[in-house]
Specification:
111 residues, mainly beta, Rieske Iron-sulfur Protein, four-stranded antiparallel beta sheet, three-stranded antiparallel beta sheet, iron, Rieske_2Fe-2S, metal ion binding, monooxygenase activity, Rieske 2Fe-2S domain-containing protein
Length: 111
Amino acid sequence: MGPRVGEWVHAAPLAEVRRRRRLAVTVAGRRIALFLVGGDVYALDDTCVHKQRSLSKGAVLNGRVICPGHQWVFDPATGAVEGRDECQPVHAVRVDGDAVYVAVPPQGEEP
């Protein structure tokens, strides 16, 4: 299942995401990790579902996000974990000019 779309909220300048390749931001009180992968921007909850490590401190390798805790490998588009049943929450992303927007789920709903 893809991310739920609620309200679009400005998350970061695109130039900053391009420069850093991965970036932790707070959107509507939620810690989000932004990743630039293959020219596209993806947004996942920054706290890993496995060991609660910060995904934004991990790496991007071969189009996948690698958690710095136990090297779990995430698909940035779906949040799926390779070889596991767990799934990292993902958020819809929209780029408008030099601004990156993340969809905040409707009140009381998970992405």
